[in-house]
């Protein structure tokens, strides 16, 4: 049996011998610094002939960078977060970085463990859609690595930038939409947990509801269809059910549709439903889901621009605030008589 011959990996010394230059000059040429353009081209041509590839581990040791950005999603059961993290991965790759995407699955303790693991793996930066924005571990993460947050600010953490949602505008318009349609008893499905009751958007709900004279009940809700349907079914299967449900993710609203169907309730005749992130599937429902659109392109562009600038130059950027646009469709109507 023939054993395959393993070629020795070409080194800087091999390129130096090929070109008659010092290893230092070869290193400078491959990095595009301190040597003439003609020399750079000659060295790169020799590297291609020899099949030389930069050793990522050696490069990381020399530069202190790994070229990797950790992305922590609060829940990849959320279809909107799937789209965002996928777009971030592609955009970071175009910027010469690799994304390492992990899922907190709605668990604050898991989120903390994942953040520490990414720091230990020497990622150049962490981008997070946080489960618990007020968790104390974010301050420690920010001391050790470039940290950027999406959707919510991280109080007490020295983030390099934040790309946050104008939930004051979004929540206010959502509850006004329901109030204007005549609703007074509203359930709000939120990703908040008993351990994270003070999420900023939830606080806004309580304040705006009071101003509008609405009776609002916030219910923690998972993003997966079965889990969201179970929460919605429990809220709707009562004698005095709410006349409207506002969901902080369209994926939660899909659970309301499923629960309403099981209970023989019509949307919006028996219960109105309002989403919050305009996932494409929302247009395919019957009736199509009324929701809010956030500019995903602007979000991803802002995140990547800010995180790359922070890695390369240490520069901190001003926070970017995204404002939603209402997408009224057919799922909101007046309350049942």
Q: How would you sum up this structure, described in words?
A:
This protein has 337 residues and is α/β, with parallel strands linked by helices. Helix content is 44%, strand content 16%. It has a six-stranded parallel beta sheet, with helices on both faces. A four-stranded parallel beta sheet has the order 7-6-8-9, sandwiched between helices. Strands 10-12 form a two-stranded antiparallel sheet. Helix 2 (23-31) packs across helix 3. The longest helix is centred in the last third of the chain and has 18 residues, at 296-313. The N and C termini lie far apart (84 Å).
Helix-residue proportion = 40-55%
* Total discrete domains: 3
Average of per-residue pLDDT values? 89
Q: What's the main sheet like?
A: 6 strands, parallel
**Estimated share of beta-strand residues:** 15-25%
CATH structural fold name of the largest domain: Rossmann fold
Please write the string of helix (H) and strand (E) elements.
Answer: HHHHEHEHEHEEHEHEHEHEEHEE
CATH architecture type of the largest domain: 3-Layer(aba) Sandwich
Structural class: alpha/beta
Instruction: Compute the separation of the termini in Å.
Output: 84 Å
Helices and strands in order, then pairings?
Blueprint: H1 12-19, H2 23-31, H3 37-50, H4 56-63, E1 68-73, H5 79-94, E2 98-103, H6 108-120, E3 125-128, H7 137-144, E4 146-151, E5 161-165, H8 167-180, E6 185-190, H9 200-212, E7 215-220, H10 225-236, E8 244-247, H11 250-263, E9 272-274, E10 291-293, H12 296-313, E11 320-322, E12 325-327
Parallel strand pairs: 1-2, 1-3, 3-4, 4-5, 5-11, 6-7, 6-8, 8-9
Antiparallel strand pairs: 10-12
